[in-house]
Amino acid sequence: MNVNTAAKITQQLLANGHEIADTDEEADVIIFNTCCVRNTAEQKILSHIALAKQLKRHNPNLKIAVIGCLSAKRKINGVDILLGTDNAMEVVEKLGVALQPLPPMKEDTVYIDITYGCENYCSYCIVPFVRGKLRIRPREEIIAEFNQVKDTAKDIYLLGQNVNAYPDFPQLLAELAQMPGNFTLHFLSAHPKDFDVETIKVMAQYPKIAHDVHLPMQCGCDKILKLMNRKYTVADYLEKVKLLREYIPDIHITTDIICGFPGETEEDFNETVSVVEKVKFSAAYIFPYSNRTGTAADKMPNQVPFQTRKARATKLVEIMRKMS
Prior knowledge:
single chain, 3 domains, three-stranded parallel β-sheet
């Protein structure tokens, strides 16, 4: 989603005569489009902003803009423009450029937002607090944007924090998959509780839909899934995997996994390892649990020491590497 927003901002500025600077030192404007889902990302952003502020001391005319999740989460001093996720595109106007309708850039890979925000309130996740509640993009806007890119793009991704929370998602997927054009259709990211057999049937039916799905499991232990407020069980998840492989034998399934969530014991972690070995994911994004202030998980008892979280994540990465 941030890649998509950054591309649109860049396109607006380039159309107005701006150029992309070769180095930070040469820039008149530096825009940080931020994510703070994990603490490591937030700390990296803050260090980059600090370096930009040093450049500003030598070049007072330098403009620094911070947009996206971090701006919605905290106040950042010493920057010129601060905007959240909902009004990130306003950075263009604040830099003195009038927003104008522009044709999509002719890229091989194109992203189309279909939902914004999320209201699942998974207990570890800061997204609802920084990106707001679920908002549905009007269907006619999605169709119009799709029509603009379908003849030139090779890969088109439908985007949402919870993409299949879109009303009648399987029908939207089927409608787009029937359009003319030499494209492959993907979607990111699906929530297991909303991912249904109708979506799987549509994926199997239309050749233009990629045989890959990102289905974040997060954990393979029912006790921890409940603490995470994920609203599905391991059995539910495995049933979705079974259906995917029945309908689409060559499906590639990728996932996200959090290691060391509060209350996770070694036995709980080993349950996750067993599920990973059973499912045989094509790839997995594996992270130690990251505390995010304001989330329910941050206040939970039995916080797992960071070194233990890290060790479990490292172990699972090695298991995944051998499988994939």
